[in-house]
Design goal:
The protein is of the alpha+beta class and 749 residues long. Among the domains are: 17-90, Ubiquitin-like (UB roll) (Roll), CATH 3.10.20; 94-168, membrane protein fhac (Ubiquitin-like (UB roll), Roll), CATH 3.10.20; 174-258, Ubiquitin-like (UB roll) (Roll); 264-341, Roll (Ubiquitin-like (UB roll)), CATH 3.10.20; 346-417, membrane protein fhac (Ubiquitin-like (UB roll), Roll), CATH 3.10.20.310. The chain has 14 helices and 35 strands. Helix 8 runs antiparallel to helix 9 (298-313).
Length: 749
Amino acid sequence: MNLFILILKILCISLFLAVSAYSEIINKIVINGNKRISDETVVMFANVSLKDQISNNELNLILKDLYQTNYFENVKVLLNENILTITVKEYPIIQKIEYTGVKSKTLLAKIISNSLIKNKSPFNLFSLNNEKNRINDKIKELGYYDAKLETFVETLDADLININFNIKLGDKAKIKKISFIGNKIFKDRRLKRLIISTEYKFWKIISGRKYLNPNLVDIDKRLLKNYFLNNGYYNVSINSTFAKLINKNEFELIFNIDAKNKIYFGDLKLDLPTDFDEKNFEKINELFEKVKNEPYSINTISKILDEIDQVSALRQYQFIKATVDENITSDKINLTFKIKETEKFYVEKINIYGNTITQENVVRNQLEIDEGDPFNEILANKSINNLKSLNYFKSVDQKITDGVVQNTKILDIFIEEKPTGEITASAGVGTSGSSVGFGIKENNFMGKGLSLDSNFLISSESFKGQIGVTNPKFRNTDKSLYFNVEALENDNLKNFGYKSNKSGFNIGTNFEYLTDLRLGIGSSNFYEKIETNDTASAAQQRQKGNYWDSFLNLDFNYDKRNQKFQTTSGFKSYYSLDLPLVSDTNTLKNYYDYSYYFDLFDQNISTLSLMMNSAISITGDDIKLSERINLPSRRLRGFEAGRVGPKDGDDFIGGNFAAALNFSSTIPQFFEESQNVDFLFFIDTANVWGVDYDDVLDDFYSGSIRSSTGVALDWFSPIGPLNFSLAYPITKDDGDKTETFRFNLGTTF
């Protein structure tokens, strides 16, 4: 019996193979059922032609190819007597797609963006269901958890249909409360400041973070996990996150955190190949000693790996790779960074795709590697980041493939360009007057990587206009070259006894000297005319006339802030020096500005700033009225701008020196977790002193230190940034003009 079954199986297999192997040569192709799609197109989709030898297996491939076009609802394929017959039934065509129920055009545009179905495209239920799922996901992403979506399909005839998506949004799902379960380590207030989602507050007028958004919640989970990982909690996990319905469309967002015990760095060491020089890794070993016994941090590990990458990037070792071995004992984690040599590859060719406007040399100037160089993945990735930072392109991607020559790589860079022009207009009103401005900027002029910038600002007492051009890669180097012309008029006759008309040009270069340190050198050249009124003092009257000044400009900018906008940690140090070359007054100008950002009292973001400014004549001449120093209003709140310091009669004339020390700190207890509002406490201390032409004035005003304290509000309102302050002068001089309240409102449109 078993033998019989075995023989039967063999016969079936043989028959199947014979049938499968059977093939015919196509002498004729017949297409049936098609109405809109031509016979030729159907044949092209089938990937078949006359005189092809077709087997049964290949018939199945034809069937598969035709279905994959998504043009056909049904397909039959028959090969008989050398005639291939293809019978199709086409999907109906979508004549019109309508979206009803959403009145806001802006909101509707967000919902239907990236739609999966289009007008004049084939209709099928699979695509329709995918589009319904996409719309539902998008609606939830926008915060409408109670929304209802209905779909209506209208058949016009056998070949045409209309689709209507009726959307009933309802109210947005508000985050009424944010809670953390299992967290006994950090205060909830601190964790709330870390995440993007925020509790609903009435003053958060335009913030979208107060509405429940699953995408933002996913980001929140990663932010929370990274925070714990950077504070020693190696085994942290965000086990679950869910939204609990409190009232209609009001949710409590709950994060379940399991942080376990705190882990500290133990022994950290390098495992190097025997022929590697340990001296090249001294900075890494120093870092090991610095972080030992410190709480575990993924940022620290990343920093170590970056230092190892830096060794590679400096081409001390071009083909290395680092791996990390972990060993946890009790509350310590021991790490071994194993450095291994990798196979050596070189760059055979670099191809640039997608630059229809931008010249190829502009792209290549941003690359850290060139054809013929040793291939370094770190430098390749840095090149892509350089291109992204230009802000010329909508997207930048790379593809690395093996070259034709052995041990070579081909780097393909794909870019998608975007408009790089900007037009801005601004208007502002405040206690010191109003202003309007206009600007035009092109960041990639004629595709050459040049930046053209023009802006104009008009206020009640001044006019300033500027036109400039910047080449960020002058002559294919890392140095930037800038040139601008500007004109400035300040009518200070009423308040300060003089009027200044100034015009000229600036030219210079700046470059990165060390990591985070940029140096600049340039020249400023200006012609100026000064006028005074009849009430001005004799010393001021002497300054009437025309002036020509040419300066050598040097500046140093050391920026170690964690981020340029809404900085929370780090510091920035800036120094500039203007040396007179050809000048009627020979004024030497120094300016220094230092700001330090830190956490105070449980994540209150605080800033400590020091500013020093000086203007002195190296030949003993009087300093021009326009070059005398006055304190900006933001440096000494509670006092009128420019109305502090030396006076000559009734006119505030400014001084030769100025200094300011400022402290400010956010107060989260009042506007907690707000995206749009910062409430600040501040203390300002400052002074303006030094009058070069009058010893009596100099002695009288040199020792009076001004100080003030108060509160300030910075609000990114729907009509633009609004800031105001309430300040109380602590110490002042009898002649100073105080100002308790100050506000400023401005917008760009």
